[in-house]
Amino acid sequence: xxxxxxxxxxxxxxxxxxxxxxxxxxxxxxxxxxxxxxxxxxxxxxxxxxxxxxxxxxxxxxxxxxxxxxxxxxxxxxxxxxxxxxxxxxxxxxxxxxxxxxxxxxxxxxxxxxxxxxxxxxxxxxxxxxxxxxxxxxxxxxxx
Length: 144
Prior knowledge:
With 144 residues, the protein is of the alpha+beta class. 35% of the residues lie in helices and 26% in strands.
């Protein structure tokens, strides 16, 4: 009964970790307004993707226009009707910006801490199963 209890506890913990996921960003995609009606869509390192598509919406949520970035990672749009802008690169990166809002570019100082914690959790799970297998093999060899 003790072994099955540990398996249930492990299953519940793993289930809780899967349910309580948060988006992880290897590098963030950002919309940075340049001039009136012009914006840039860049990653944290200053690069951009040529496959990024920018979609401009009005206040009612209707799509006004959509198109790719130019060679400098910029996109020109009709500023008078634009209210909300979404950029996606087709690889899972997506960013949004409401026209007129201040853009705050910040990085996550806890990124390495979270990555390290996830790494050690996986190491702990691996050690748990390694010891379990080792104990099981030694129990079998003692029976023989």
